[in-house]
Amino acid sequence: MTKFINYYNLCPIPEPKDFLGIAADKEKGNIITTLSKNIVIIITISTQKQVRSWSVVEKLSSKVVYDKRSEKYVGVFGNKTLRCWDESTADVNKSKKLRFHKNISELVTNEKDTFVLYDDGSFESLKTAIDTRKDCKQITSVPQHLQLVPDFNLSKGRIFTLPGGKQILTYFETNHTSGECHLVRLPLEDGNLRQRFPLKRGNLQTTVCGAAVIEGDGVPSLCTIWSDKRIFLLTLDDCAQPERSPGTFVSMLNHLKVDSSLSLLGLSGHSVAIYGANYGQKKESEGASLLLYNLQYKVIKVKQFFKVYFDFSKLWSIDNHILLALGQNLSVVQYRVSKELLSELVGTQVCNDYQTSVEGDQINEDDCIQDYLQYTTSIGKCTELEYVPKRTYHINEADGKSVAFIGVESFEKDLNHMRHINLHVDVRRASAASSDDQITLMSNHNDDGFTCRKIQIIASQMEKAGASEHEITEKLLWLLIKAELLSDIGVCLKRYTNISEKMLSKTLNFILKQFAITNPAIKDAASNETLILNGHRNSVMDIDINSEDKSEKDKKNKKKLHIPCSDRLAKEEGTLQTEIKDILNTLLSCNFDFTAIGNYIRQDIAYSEALILLEHLYNMLTDPDMTEFEERPSHDHTSVEFELQILRWFGVFLNTHFQKLALSKDVKLIEILLRWQELFIQYKHEIIELQETSALLYNIIQCKKLAEDRDYSKWYSIEQIHLF
């Protein structure tokens, strides 16, 4: 599952056109920011603090990099000279100038070395370039087309490693006069074996909106986005041929405008980051989006919306951070990529602007033409007889009259197959067929469906529309909290697995408040804070289903949904307390990220609610009647470890409320913490005993292995005895 954890501004950019770029520093978590042609700053991403900085008199022509071989910072000045300095250098202007005979385009680094890329397309390692800089002889042969036409710009140089260990250098070559763009691929062992891949699609009048080289599935690949919304992918292995450019068609990009500039960045594997203006906006300045697109499954994994679109935009990736230069700000988006399932990605490709039937037919027709063109060398050879469109077949549904229903034997066979794969299926027998009866397969056998019919309709419609679990839970949980529907909150937590940390925190806050209200002992023993649930006592409640944050314009035309309010008064107090505990335990069994949820817990959960949960977690560990969490769907298809999950929640609240817990003099808090301390001491003794048992078990196993490997003599044997 991929998530954007947080977004924040790192530092301002004085002049966007003078911003030269970002490179990784020698220390992990730091970046080298060439903020302008005269300023270099090293910043720690996590703390947003400036570590060190240098100002130079002579203007830089490319970004400053760190050379791991010499352990020095290297900068290019005026395309002709280099300066090298270390972190202790106070004045870079006093560093020695290294003048070259050829213009330097940029410096490209890998894990071990740094390479100098010249304007004529040749390259060499930094050490070799410094040693041979006074020689007029060129290290690698210069392409003839670059000798005749010097008006070329080389950019986005990167070094990739092929599966066999061979390394290649790739960069984009743009002709300022004609506007033509090529991708150059050449091995580091021999710069003469260069290949130029034209970014052109035959005679089609299309232009490239964004291009980048990504890591791919072990082999680097060229990813291009074109003005007709198409995404192409070309593998850059040793068998790659320039005639195959731009590669194979992947999918259509319908979420961003392609008539405005796009920024494309390869992250890891099949994932790319795309920044551009939102599709359907009347003005480009109204909004933009940052997408993480999966080229393998052809879906969008996560989105980040921006209120304003900037023509000037550049993307970099350092560790698990995406750095965006947007306008006059350098921003950071922290993301997390964990083990992915296809079920988590389904639905994330749904766009808010649905296509009309005409647009869909046009896309299908274009796809068919594109498939045909892959086998045709020229468009002129295409005739009406050769072009055969794809056929679609319509299958009539069974109605019991014109088309017979499935037989009993076939139904029993399918039913047994579903039971073999651990699907919980309820079969209801009816005397006559009814169009209102529906069969729904649930991933959780404890899922009985929502009690509120309107909530069930909303959930079904969102699932049919292809919405992801993350989007469904964001809307449903907020709606259920407003309506105070406890039982349906439990259903939502059981049904869906991909729940954001934000909604887990808000739902936990609501459940703890309900827990305090229904338990008078907790309510009376709590601190001076009054636990009041700001709920509605009416039988019916109006809820705005548009969004949680509403503008003045949206308030005039907002949609309302009439949902029955809390059924708390209709249930007995004891039954309600049991139900709240069960729902709380269901929430505690949900998967979460320790760091991400801490920021929301700190804001949403007050001291009094934290006290309630600490006591409840202790009771879950010590109560002999307390059973483990009920089995529910998980990302790894394994049940959650009961004790480990409880200790993780305890660690979250101990970190988020440490200051309040340390300063509080509440007697009840001291009692709870003392009980936790005794429990941990008991765990510590058990761990020590288990360590001793583990050591004995290890010795027994090792002795068994030695006895099996020992070759005994028939005449005598020698044994070594250790006297203690």
From TrEMBL:
Nucleolar protein 11 C-terminal domain mapped to chain residues: 410-724
UniProt keyword list: Activator, Nucleus, rRNA processing, Transcription, Transcription regulation
PANTHER family in UniProt: NUCLEOLAR PROTEIN 11
Identification of the protein by name: Nucleolar protein 11
Subcellular locations according to the entry: Nucleus, Nucleolus
Major subcellular site: nucleus
Superkingdom: Eukaryota
Keyword Lipoprotein: no
Sequence ranges assigned to domain Nucleolar protein 11 N-terminal in this UniProt record: 1-336
